[in-house]
Design brief:
With 511 residues, the chain is an alpha/beta fold. 37% of the residues lie in helices and 22% in strands. It has 14 helices and 26 strands. It has helices at residues 4-10, 53-70, 75-91, 93-104, 108-128, 167-179, 192-208, 223-231, 244-256, 279-291, 311-323, 343-359, 412-420, 435-442, and strands at 16-18, 20-21, 26-27, 33-37, 44-49, 136-138, 144-152, 155-159, 182-186, 216-219, 235-241, 260-264, 269-273, 301-307, 362-365, 368-369, 381-382, 384-387, 403-409, 424-425, 427-431, 451-454, 466-467, 470-471, 478-479, 488-496. Strands 3-2-10-9-8-11-12 form a seven-stranded mixed sheet, with helices on both faces. β13 (269-273), α10 and β14 (301-307) form a beta-alpha-beta unit. α3 runs antiparallel to α6. The longest helix has 21 residues, at 108-128. It is globular and about 80 Å long. The relative contact order is 0.14. The structure holds 2-aminohexanedioic acid. Homotetramer.
């Protein structure tokens, strides 16, 4: 049995916690008291004093001051501080991963995997801290030089979701820090303790390096804290991960003040299984994508689009695989599927199931809400599979639960059309051994998603790539590749080192 109390002690989580921190300094907010319950066993873990408006303004005032100092520290030096944070995370991986699993409900393996993503992004950000490259251009004017520089953008607000309660913050924060920005984090009110634990883990690094107070802040709270951030002209960039309605509200508020937003919202991710697919890898890929994290990743597999000749075989193998799934305490390694985040999520799963039935869908693996011993929290459901039409309203919508849809197709063009025919555009995959099909899927007439994979599933992206999607997914890109550019402002500089003043475009202006 895992000793949760001991892990909370090691992570500095108290029975009642300060819900506001500016890195080195923390205090109990004057907002409402929030209680964090575990979906694993339904037990109360700890309480948090959430931020009120006064606390929020204090944090932002300190962030503004911190930015004035932080932006002057050379980027590789900031990178070295991020490296030290990565070292601390390595030491605390087991404890933080366990708390992620206990507060959020994902399997311990996935909790540890999430902390590994944090460590990996630290390493990546250290490298990037020496590669914040701008281009140089040849000027059309004699004795002129043109180049561009990337400068920090300022204050970055990070709104994160419960399903990746720590990794998504680190994707944003580690890059923003090496870029010279300061971060204000509003974690999900469903997983506030993991956010507090992260601050405890990096606190010694901040202290040892004399990092100014306000470089890493947390303001816990609900929707209103998100609105304060979105409406605040002092926040240059809001990076928000979560539902499409949340992203729309944040995006509209930030756009109203002409600020920048980086949105990573819902997906409706499909896997196309073609006639030539190797089902020995396709089936596990589908099952992990659909039931991993109990279907609560934005990259979770929601739809399987299967070629008609192999439809019955795929269906039978999926039914067999689902019959072998063990549902239960995610901290116990033999279980594949843990609980949903809370009872509201269970109700939403049930409501979606009803809508599938009303639309004419047919369940081949029936959904259930589990009760009895081990399931006292009321948050455990069994994963389900339904045969549907892609056009059903409920299929067009992202249900954040292990509800998988099976859809039949005849030719590859039809499969790609079905894959793209949803409002969201995050992740997609094809299982095929036919190079024509895979190349068509990856081409400009193929998948319209930000992520398109061949012979792997839709979830579990590595941090080195740019992560995000199109359409209602929001268009933002986080994590690897050149996503760092979102956290900086570009300045174009033209320098005249001659003694004449020629104008661009050959314009003559004489007097
Ligand atoms: C999310 O669900 O918001 O690709 C992020 C994945 C993970 C990240 C998911 N690396 O599934």
């Amino acid at each position: 049995m895992i000793d949760i109390k001991n892990i909370l002690d090691k992570l500095g989580i108290e029975p009642v916690n300060h819900g506001v921190t500016t890195g080195q300094v923390s205090w109990p907010g004057n907002g409402e008291i929030l209680t964090s319950f575990s979906p694993v066993d339904g037990k109360k873990i700890a309480e948090i004093g959430q931020a009120g408006k006064y606390d929020y303004d204090q944090v932002i005032a300190r962030s503004v001051e911190a930015y004035k100092v932080w932006r002057l520290i050379p980027a590789p030096k900031r990178g070295d501080i991020v490296r030290q944070m990565g070292d601390q995370l390595r030491k605390m991986k087991q404890d933080l991963g366990t708390l992620v699993s206990y507060e959020m409900g994902k399997s311990l393996q996935e909790g540890l995997g999430e902390v590994q993503e944090m460590i990996d992004i630290c390493d990546f950000a250290v490298g990037i801290s020496r590669q914040l490259y701008g281009l140089t251009m040849h000027s059309e004017r004699p004795m002129h030089r043109m180049y561009e520089q990337w400068h920090p953008i300022g204050l970055v607000g990070v709104i994160s979701a419960f399903n990746f309660p720590v990794a998504v913050w680190s994707w944003n924060a580690m890059l923003a820090w090496v870029c010279g920005d300061v971060c204000i984090w509003k974690p999900s009110e469903k997983t506030p303790l993991t956010a507090i634990a992260c601050q405890q883990i990096i606190k010694t690094v901040l202290k040892e390096n004399d990092v100014p107070e306000g470089v890493s802040s947390v303001v816990t709270g609900g929707r209103e804290v998100g609105i304060w951030l979105a409406d605040d002209p002092r926040i240059a960039l809001i990076s928000a991960t979560g539902s499409i309605p949340m992203g729309r509200a944040v995006g509209e508020a930030v756009a109203r003040r002409l600020g920048r937003s980086l949105l990573e919202l819902g997906g409706n991710n499909a896997i196309i299984v073609t006639r030539s697919a190797d089902l020995n890898i396709a089936i596990p890929g589908i099952v992990f994508g659909a039931v991993g994290t109990a279907g609560q990743r934005c990259t979770s597999t929601r739809r399987i689009i299967v070629q008609e000749d192999i439809y019955e075989e795929v269906k039978n193998r999926l039914v067999k695989a689902y019959s072998q799934l063990k549902i239960g305490n995610p901290l116990e390694t033999q279980n594949h599927v843990g609980p949903l985040i809370d009872k509201m999520a269970v109700e939403q799963y049930q409501a979606s199931v009803e809508k599938v039935k009303e639309a004419g869908g047919h369940f081949i693996v029936a959904p259930n809400v589990l009760s009895g011993e081990e399931y006292e929290s009321g948050c455990y459901v069994s994963p389900s599979i339904a045969e549907v039409e892609n056009g059903y309203a409920i299929v067009q919508h992202e249900t954040f639960a292990p509800l998988l849809y099976l859809i039949k197709y005849t030719d590859i063009e039809e499969a790609i059309a079905i894959q793209n025919d949803v409002p969201q555009g995050l992740s997609s995959a094809i299982f095929t051994n036919n190079v024509r099909e895979s190349e068509q899927f990856l081409s400009q007439v193929g998948s319209d998603c930000g992520i398109a994979n061949v012979n792997i599933g839709t979830s579990g992206a590595e941090i080195g790539g740019a992560f995000g999607g199109e359409k209602e997914t929001g268009g933002g890109r986080e994590s690897g590749s050149d996503s760092w550019k979102a956290y900086m402002r570009r300045q174009t500089n033209t320098i005249n080192y001659g003694s004449a003043l020629p104008l661009a475009q050959g314009i003559k202006f004489e007097f």
